[in-house]
Amino acid sequence: MSKPIIHRALRRSALTVALGLCFASGVHAQSNTTGNIVGEAQPGATILVVNPSTGFSREITVGADGSYRAGSLPSGTYTVTMRNADGTTSVRNNVGVAVGAGTSVDFTAAATPGDAVELDRVQVTGSYIPPIDFSSVESSTIVTQETIERLPVSRNVTSVALLAPGTTQGDAGFGNLASFGGATVGENAYYINGFNVTNFRNGLGFSNVPFDMYAQYQVKTGGYGAEFGRSTGGVINATTKRGSNEWHWGASAYWTPDRWRQSDRDIVNPQGDPIASNRFDEYDKLETSMYVSGPLIKDRLFFYAIGSMRDNSQTTHGFSGDLETKGPATDGSTDSPFWGLKLDAYLTDNHRLEYTGFRDESEFITSGMRSQQSALPGEVVGYSGGTSYAQLSGGDNHILKYTGYLSDSFTLSALWGQGEYSVSDYNSGVSAAADSSYVTYNSLLGPTRVLTPALGSLNSLGEDKRVAYRIDAEWDLGDLFLGRHFLRFGVDREKNSAINNNTIQGADGYRYAAIENDGSDNVIGTADDFWYVQRDVYDNVGNFETISQAFYIEDQWQVTDNLLLSIGVRNEQFENMNAAGEAFIEIKDQWAPRLGLSWDIGGAGTQKLFANAGRYHLPVATNTNIRLAGQELYLRDFFFWDGTSVDENFIPIINPADQFDAVVLADGSVHPTVSSVDQEIDPMYQDEYILGYQWQFMPKWSVGIRGIYRELGSTIEDMAVDAGLIRYAEQNGFDNFSAGGFDYYVLGNPGFPISIEVDMDGDGVLDPVELSADILGYPKSVRKYKALELFFARAWDDQWFLEGSYTWSNSYGNNEGFVRSDNEQTDAGLTTLFDQPGLMDGAYGDLPNDRTHTVKVWGAWQFAPELLASANYVGKSGRPINCFGFHPTDEFAQAYGQESFYCNGELFERGSGGRTSWTNQLDLGLEYRPLWAEEKLAFKIDVINALGDQEVTELNEVGDLAQVPTFDAAGNFTGYDYTANPNYLSPTNFQQERSVRLSVSYDW
């Protein structure tokens, strides 16, 4: 009898039947929050699937071909019973189901002699290797909270993601985020219980819950199915814990004390000059949690509730000029509480309702003060003056989900979710030091000396809200056409609203800089020097909406006994609104095919060849609505000043009559869509191809290899078209057109023509303009990623397990993607990279997330009944080094300062400055669970970066300090003189310093 792969039991041993809830660098079936049990049994028999902890059950009839499938099961441990027509039964106990995975349970194969586990006892442990899942083509890593608690890793979602092959740590300026497959850290998608919690402003960050609340994580690094979209990086799909018929409660505390933390490295430039003294910085972190769970109505209604307190504090010191002496201090702290609730209602065996609610609101307050030094090095006797700064994040989240098992073959689910997220940074007022001073070059007035920079602060007050709906269906069509078909399809819609209020706070709504300038021969210090005040006025207020929606369909088609094809397609569209509520960009019919193959080589269930090809789209970030389609007002005024008159806050006292210039950088109006967005714009998308092989060569060991190629097919970026419009006017006889004094940005696809409307003849009427790629002068956006991943795993056997991977990869091109690590710019889709053609000179090379070699190994060892040792090692090669400076010939690019790939007037190709050093990090853990407490009590110590390596991970890559024009005796311009930045190649970030985390937990 023919048996399809999707339902074939793995016959090598009962161990291969068990699905361990652990890591696996393998492939698994796509699903938001549930898993499946599939297998073979007597045709016509009844399969009863029961979760003993909740009483939930499903009854399935085995098909005529002898296969069955129980889909959309909540993760957990099940008992599976086969009942034949003659009344005889066969039972498989302790069958584990993980999110997004298929568990195979066979009632036809006999146990192989010598198997470690009896066939009717499918054991599940927290660190067991999942079997090879022939029902999927995607690349995914699954981990349970039980496993991650054993490992000595930092307690955050990113640390889980970084254990997967193909992921690397992003730049510190973006926060603690991971890069997947060469993509930027802003191109990932994050889900909690099926609800998208990604920061939709710029893709940086996500809503979060305490580590103790998570149950399982599914880290998708590539090849994921049509159900998932809006990501060109990776997907982190997490589920939370839930209640059962048994009452449980517990408490935990995790403390990372500063006294056991390795001191931060001081920063010294290549010439040996000190830049920053970090040795005095202090960090303390304490997180406590309590939870309770149980039945409200036995077998029908369950709850899980958790409360957590995060008490983090830090003190950082500015530079006093002496590495041995503390400088100005900045104190930061947060003690924001968290609450979370999960309800599960089994209305009947066929209808289930879930609610998830949590509040992750957080406020981090920083206070800055100037220090008063004593005669003793490093001793601070007091502080004076200063400001306070607050950073708000998080908010309330509510998720409702219904699942209906409408028949043996058809399941329907519907989800509604609402999430709030604050993105606010605000200052208490003016911050200035009377003696601060530096020299720079101002394109308008020549060499300048800034006396009091940053007077007045830019406040960013933002409140984001996402409302999402989705409906998903699963339909087992059986033998329909040339094999068996299992169909998945659905729709989803998100309405994202961003309230933005960016203004200058302090100094009566202005931001000042008092500047000394030479008005004659460009040499500071002559009798012709004068002082002037630059006053900035900035305001951008509005409500912005983005609507994203999609539908998908996917068929898992069993072509032959050993061959499974996954054929799917996803259609996406998005619409971004301007401040007036009008759509300024709308892209429909973004078709994303997803094709996959799974081949059971030889039919023994131990070797698998898999392949995947797919397209993935990324929507325009809401940050683009705010910056490009808002009511941005930006005025800059210049006043003569006597150089001495200031008030008590060091604000220069000026006379309005002394104003000598004014520049309008943004006029506060909403620009017409036809003038700011290419009317023929294409969506941003990436194509991906994967080919892999996986082999379980022993009952406890598996290995695999995977090749990956990714290519960014199209990019959406804002591009300045000033120079292009001038060339267009010259070629088409618009003699009265003038682009002087304004920056004209258009959202489009770099390297392609742009269609906009511009008033070219000054008559107040917009004229259609077709700017060719040659006139614009921009190259096409390029990002390519290729990688070879080797991975292995040794199963947990109540004594030890070991897993790991090696990745060779190369990420190269001229555009990193959504955000930009070169200058840590968070303006997704609005970076400086394509702001002028000259900024793209030399931009092609190895990109910032390129790490040629990465080695990851982790595991645990129960070396005594009460003691468990664990370790996690990550070694990776360094990142490319650049040199940024002033463009020597492109006057438009020169206006952006040190943003070009030129240093000292010479082209410095991207990544041609070598690499940072290889880094090694070894984390160690030791857990003690006393037998007298029935293993409910645990004490643990984790040492992060036990070796204490603090290699440089990021450098100052600005090579030019100043660009000053030179003139001959007749006053003719002859070129530029460049001043090298003495801090070029100075460290800006190091490996995480060694720290010790102490924890205690009790679970009853």
Structure description:
The longest helix has 11 residues. The chain is mainly beta. Helix content is 4%, strand content 52%. The N terminus is likely disordered. It folds into 2 domains: 133 residues, Carboxypeptidase-like, regulatory domain (Immunoglobulin-like), CATH 2.60.40; 756 residues, TonB-dependent receptor, beta-barrel domain (Maltoporin, Chain A). It starts with 13 loop residues before the first helix and ends with a strand. The chain has 8 helices and 57 strands. A hairpin with a 5-residue loop joins β54 and β55. It has a 31-stranded antiparallel β-sheet that branches. It has a 5-stranded mixed β-sheet with strand order 8-13-14-11-12.
Number of alpha- plus pi-helical segments: 8
**N-end to C-end Cα span:** 49 Å
Number of strands: 57
Q: What portion of residues belong to β-strands? A: over 45%
What structural class is derived from the secondary structure elements? mainly beta
CATH homologous superfamily title of the largest domain: TonB-dependent receptor, beta-barrel domain
C-alpha Rg, in Å? 31 Å
Keywords:
Maltoporin, Chain A; mainly beta; 1004 residues; disordered N terminus; 31-stranded antiparallel sheet; 2 domains
